[in-house]
Amino acid sequence: MRNTRDFAVSRRTTLAGLAGATFLSTLPLRAFAQECEDNPAFRHGVASGDPTHDSVVLWTRIEPGQSDGDIAWDLARDLEFSEIVQSGATQTSAERDHTVKILATGLQPGATYYYRFRKGGIVSPVGRTRTIPAGRLDRLSIALASCSNFAFGFFNAYDAIAKDPEVDFVLHTGDYIYEYGADGWGGDISRKIGRVHEPAHEIVSLADYRQRHAQYKRDAGSKAMHAAHPFIACWDDHESANNPWVGGAQNHQPEAEGKWEDRRAASIRAYYEWMPIREPEWLEVKGRTRMQFWRSYSFGDLATLVTLETRHTARAKQIDYMDYAGKIASETDAAHLRDDVIGAPGRAMLSPEMEADLSAALSASVAGKQPWRLIGNQIPIARTPVPDLVAKGVLPDPAADPQASSEAKALAWKGKWNLPFYPDTWDGYPWARERFYDLAREAGASDLIYLTGDSHSFWANSLADAQGRPVGIELGTSGISSPGDFISSGFGPALSRALDRAFAEYVPEVLWTDNMHNGYVRLDLERDHGRASFVAIDTVLSPAYRVGTLRRYAVGKRDGQLALDLI
């Protein structure tokens, strides 16, 4: 269990967690999860997502032995289903892995609904969903989640989101599943806590990806969170394989695992089957493919959220530091790597179609005088060059320690030459990042809030472009269960905290970071101000946990620019 002495428990959040103040308070969470597990037809629960002002996707999965014939569904105004507003029936089969997706249309904006599925006399657990508000809106609350690795622990942060009474919508910015096998990353922990990945091998085929999604959907916290709140999603890398780009992935070996295009297609098909998201033919913009998975959501006159696709439609290949480790002998060499290799013009991240849709959404938000514009962003966008941690006395010099780990050596090397922390993030694509910032500025939106996942750390960042002009702020969430990099690198709690402090002290765009805790970020927006709460849980090794708030920041505007102030 993680050390919790630095864990400032918020009484309000703790009471919310214990009380279960959403509709799930009518059914204790573990009992709710057991109801799903014992249900002979609907073991994976229910989910909703990808909402608009007048529609939402409803999802479930029926057990193969129960999937013949019609599956009925109901949508109601109340939990008791005394006021049913829509009903229907559909069918499924092995062709779609017995999953069910319904696009419920003709709904009222900003309305709460309850839904269920029925097969004969068997009724699914009840889910609650919302449509997106239209017109005047004074308040919006979004829970930001990322990086749920079944092998590393229980999805207690999902559990906490399910019980958070403030949350309107959940935004998941990727790594919803992980592709590793039972002996891969997290394997040792998974065997200790009984959460070994299924199938046992690394997932490659369509059947593999389906089985992995099914395992993740059986987690108790996941089922509760999906039932409690509508889900807005974008994918990152592990939904397919670690660090993909348009032509392959770091964790794909064609000689053993076949064509990358086949594996990617299998992963995307399973994702669409198992997630409450719209099929391309359900979109207003026609001609999109499943791979072009980005969305724009307009929350009344208050905010617009645009989710990105940064993996499969445009991304250039990542720079591999191992190719340069023995070639950097001077600052001139390092500058060449930073400016001419990593910073080479044309190293793209977003497709032209994505850029066009992004520009249109931001321009419409500015023209409509919405006060807030949000970006669902998979990977950190802040500049995070590693400071010289050895010279500053933060990191023991690996050169003086024959037992120093490869992780310590790599961190010291990046710090010595002031190189980007992660070449897979926007830091590894500075040309693409400036292109993004220029696009936003041309749309009149240099005040974006980037809601970010991927790094397994909390971040509060103040952003600027290459000329030092403010471009917005970044709120980064830690993993639902994936551990922070310093902790997983074996640096230990004391050094990991010291490294967090060093990044906040020496990296200009970083106000605060924490890689010690799992959890989520809740962003509460009102018309003239907002609040970002970094909500943490104290353990993922057991379903019993405590929840608290590490930090809160006020989100405001000064001189037309966004600012974060600790509260």
Beta fraction: 15-25%
Count of DSSP H/I helices: 14
Number of domains: 2
State the total count of DSSP E strands: 24
Largest sheet entry: 7 strands, mixed
Indicate the CATH class of the largest domain. Alpha Beta
CATH superfamily of the largest domain: Alkaline phosphatase D (PhoD)
User: Order of strands across the biggest sheet?
Assistant: 11-10-9-21-22-23-24
Pairing-aware structural class of the strands and helices?
Answer: alpha+beta
Alpha carbon gyration radius: 23 Å
Shape: globular
Q: Please give the CATH architecture of the largest domain.
A: 4-Layer Sandwich
Give the uncertain stretches in residue-range form. 1-22, 25-29
Give the proportion of residues in helices: 25-40%
CATH fold category name of the largest domain? Purple Acid Phosphatase, chain A, domain 2
Distance N terminus to C terminus?
A: 28 Å
Mean pLDDT: 93
Overview of this structure, please?
This protein is an alpha+beta fold and 567 residues long. The protein has two domains: 11-38 and 135-385 and 420-566, 4-Layer Sandwich (Purple Acid Phosphatase, chain A, domain 2), CATH 3.60.21.70; 46-133, Purple acid phosphatase-like, N-terminal (Immunoglobulin-like). Helix content is 26%, strand content 24%. The protein is built from 14 helices and 24 strands. It has helices at residues 11-19, 29-38, 156-163, 187-193, 206-217, 220-228, 254-257, 260-274, 331-342, 352-367, 406-416, 430-442, 485-488, 492-506; strands spanning 46-49, 56-61, 71-76, 84-90, 99-104, 112-119, 122-123, 127-130, 139-145, 169-172, 231-233, 244-245, 248-249, 295-299, 303-307, 372-377, 448-452, 458-464, 470-476, 510-514, 518-526, 530-537, 547-558, 561-566. The strands form five sheets. A seven-stranded mixed β-sheet has the order 11-10-9-21-22-23-24. Strands 14-15-16-17-19-18-20 form a seven-stranded mixed β-sheet. Strands 3, 4, 6, 7 and 8 form a five-stranded antiparallel β-sheet that branches. Strand 18 and strand 19 (470-476) form a beta hairpin. Helix 10 (352-367) runs parallel beside helix 12 (430-442). Mean pLDDT is 93; it is low at 1-22 and 25-29.
